[in-house]
Amino acid sequence: MFQATGAASPPPAHEAKNSSGGSTVQRSKSFSLKAQVKEICTACQKTVYPMERLVADKFVFHNSCFCCKHCHTKLSLGSYAALHGEFYCKPHFQQLFKSKGNYDEGFGRRQHKELWVHKEVESGTKSA
């Protein structure tokens, strides 16, 4: 029923001839067969799949693992505050800040002025 008459048609644009005369298919440069990098949840250290992925301050979480450090309530991207890589709900972040009046003491860290005093004492004893 179908007969080839005349010269063969040229290969389509996406095919190219190799040196032996056969044709090979060129793949798109954006296509890759490399395995995707598995992302790990910062909180539970388990694999995070794309449907349950949440990124906050460059940390990857499961939706259910993104919780307040103080009260463990589930957080959303609009209801959290972060300090030193730790995440809090906004009410507890304000409460902990107000309890001591600064970020360091309220969140269990040494104040920066204590570090300055130690440096002044060390520099004063070395020069004397």
Automatic annotation (TrEMBL):
Keywords associated with the record: LIM domain, Metal-binding, Zinc
Polar residues bias (residue ranges): 18-27
SUPFAM superfamilies the UniProt entry points to: Glucocorticoid receptor-like (DNA-binding domain) (SSF57716)
Lineage top rank: taxon: Eukaryota
Regions that span the bilayer: none
Gene3D superfamilies per UniProt: Cysteine Rich Protein (2.10.110.10)
Domain (LIM zinc-binding): residue spans on this chain: 39-99
The keyword Iron belongs to this UniProt entry's keyword annotation: no
Any matching Pfam family: LIM
Positions of region (Disordered): 1-27
InterPro entries in the record: LIM_LIMD2, Znf_LIM
GO molecular function per UniProt: metal ion binding
Protein name: LIMD2 protein
